[in-house]
Amino acid sequence: MLEVSKRILCIEDDRETATLIAEELIDRGFEVNIVYSGEAGLAAIFRDKPDLVLCDISMPGMSGFELLERLTALVPRFENMPFIFLTALADRDNELRGRRLGADDYVTKPIDFDVLEAIIRTRLSRSTRSAIWPGDVRLSGREVETLTWVARGKTSAEIAQILGTTKRTVDFHIDNARGKLGVANRTEAVMKAAQNRLIKP
């Protein structure tokens, strides 16, 4: 069980939604700080690094996408801080954009708080493991190549055409890389490989 001291920063411009999120998460044992804009969120992260960030995407001024881009560009040391987007933008393109920017999860509104709690607890436990993740993991050249193309949004079939091989072979290399990285799916494999500079998307 996580300790109540786990601090969550909620960045949400709709004050009613932000209050609801805070109340729900406080009831579930978390400490929650609310800010109402991307600019205020960035300042709060710099001022007092939270254990995890929940961030709306569509905000006036600095959007959630822009906040994450700026955070990653300015301060690489925040790479392992779990970052979860909250949004009503449920289309695939926005989800892909968020994940390619390095977001750990993407939760659509209206929020199922049981699901959100499970995601938060999982991400917090994984961030702890990533801090002690061994740096001696080595991906083969083919594994690096296939994961790089996955990071660029290519399907296994498209990667097979690019590399002049079969889809089955591509999936084999992705699965091998996933196993070495200790993650559940190809999206997490790409994120972890990129965060640890094993690939350059």
Strand order of the largest sheet: 2-1-3-4-5
| Overall spatial form | elongated
- Give me the Rg, rounded: 18 Å
First-residue to last-residue Cα separation:
36 Å
The mean pLDDT is 85
> What share of residues are in beta strands?
5-15%
Number of strands: 5
The succession of helices and strands, N to C, reads EHEHEHEHEHHHHH
Biggest sheet architecture: 5 strands, parallel
Helix content: 40-55%
Supply the number of helical segments. Answer: 9
Unreliable residue stretches:
128-134
Structural class: alpha/beta
Walk me through what this model shows.
The protein is an alpha/beta fold and 201 residues long. The chain is built from 9 helices and 5 strands. The chain has helices at 15-27, 38-47, 64-74, 92-100, 113-131, 141-151, 156-163, 167-181, 186-195, and strands at residues 7-11, 31-35, 52-56, 83-87, 105-108. Strands 2-1-3-4-5 form a 5-stranded parallel sheet, sandwiched between helices. Helix 4 links the parallel strand 4 and strand 5. The protein is elongated, with a radius of gyration of 18 Å. The protein starts with 6 loop residues before the first strand and ends in a 6-residue tail after the last helix. The relative contact order is 0.11.
